[in-house]
Amino acid sequence: MAQMLISLAQQNIDKQTGKKMLNVGSYGLHILMLSICFRAGCASTDWELGNALTNLKWLFKDVPARREDYTEVTGCTSFPLDFCSHRWLENVEVAERALQICPSLKMYISAAKMKTVTESLTKSFKTAEKIVQDALFPAKLKFLVLVAKEITPFLKLYQMHKPMLRFMCGDLTNMLKGLMEKFVKPSVMKDATTPVKCFQVDYANSVNRIDVTKMRIGFVTERALEEHMKQNSSEKLSLEFRQNCKLFLLKMVSKLFEKAPLKYPLVRGLSVLDPRVLLKNKETSVRKLNTVLRLLVESGRIEEQSCDDILREFGQFYDHNLMCASDSFRNFNPQMGRLDEFYHEHLSNKVEFRHLWEVVKLVLVLSHGQASVERGFSVNKEVMVDNLKEDSLIAQRIIHDHVNHIGGLLNIVYTKELLLSAAATRQKYHNYLDDQKH
């Protein structure tokens, strides 16, 4: 369905403009790209952690008497948090809270079985009973948290409006390598120094994988597994747990390789605009720029005749900044600075770089995802009330966006025009109603 939509859009654009779309993938950063992969990893195991965490929340949700019994028996006032079934990576706190209350939950279940407090017959209580009986449940949660924390920094970094696509190649490659190194042999991973070589790693081949007993499942998870082994000397359960960890990582990496935009040459080529790596190697930077220019020419976005001028200007730009401004490139921070402002400072209004600046402006508008659009849907949902008309919603969104733009309510400038406009709102409303009647 998605491919059909893309094909129709391409045909329409080609018909109207004679140009082609620049393909950086249909997912970009979409929050579900990582959540789907993470959920797929969880589903490949037999742990059913989603079901367990959901039922823990329902055990105490809207049941004051049960919450009171729990607090009275355990002395604990912390309760399970809401599990989000469609945004798995937001459940790190949910898993950590479940780990925190596991001892208290065990005390409560034991008291209920001994009839000290009322025993529930609900599904959520039965699930909680199975949880406290599963000695490996803490280890499972700790592994879940380990993998989630491997990905969450990447996801948080790219939930912003800044032009971030140029950094995605390096950051996504590092994240993938971090996951693969947990179960792929170091001798295989040592050559995965670039995105293309990372994709060439045959992680599905058992010959290239670390022995399951030596997998890197995390220090905290290893400790939890050791605690279990002290109480239960079953090597079989320990082996099954590690096998599930391997399945989790295999499925997740497989999904990421399938969804990740790294397979698109334009995404890899645009990393040439990352100031932190641009000045490291001129030959590599020129090669990446050539890739970008070729794709721009093929899509009809620039003229082929201008490419030599662009490459010449890039060479001059490289040599000049290597001598004069290398520190500003090396110390660029994507979280603090904006790439469009950075290159505007170095390229705009400079005749000697005019062709290069046109290309940079063209590729900087490419989006790394639709996080801002999805965030807009969330804002709409928050302001929506019954019978809210379109004009009212638009007005509220304009106010919301302006307040965000200026940095908060305290930064609003109450001008004379604003005060006069607010004073006349009632009259404007009556005028609007009169216009609707005619």
Q: Which tags fit this structure?
A:
3 domains; 438 residues; mainly alpha; 23 helices
Put simply, the count of helices is 23
- What is the chain-wise order of helices and strands? HHHHHHHHHHHHHHHHHHHHHHH
Q: How many β-strand stretches?
A: 0
Oligomeric state of the chains in view = single chain
How would you sum up the global shape? Answer: globular
User: Fraction of residues in helices?
Assistant: 55-70%
Average the pLDDT over all residues and give the rounded result: 83
What is the structural class? mainly alpha
Overall radius of gyration: 28 Å
Distance between the termini: 45 Å
Low-confidence stretches: none
Q: Work out the strand percent.
A: under 5%
How does the major sheet shape up? none
What count of structural domains? 3
